[in-house]
Design goal:
It is built from three helices and two strands; from the N terminus they run H-E-H-E-H. The protein is mainly alpha-helical. The protein has a two-stranded parallel ribbon.
Length: 80
Amino acid sequence: MSGSSGLECQQALPRMEIFIPVIVVTANGDVPTSVRAKKAGAMEFLIKPFHDQERLDATNRGVSPHRARRKIEAVRKALR
């Protein structure tokens, strides 16, 4: 990521008006990093190794609210 950590990239997304679900995946997870990621808006924090089902479940939990929010935004835009 060319000089930036994943958490720095995550924190930059809202400043660029990019609102997507973020799942942090790390091999060196600790409580302070997990808290920092969650406070910055991460939907999930997975520590390697993890099972494929954990990744799929985290993805589904992250994408579902995002899809709902996009539908609401589309309806609002249509009403304007």
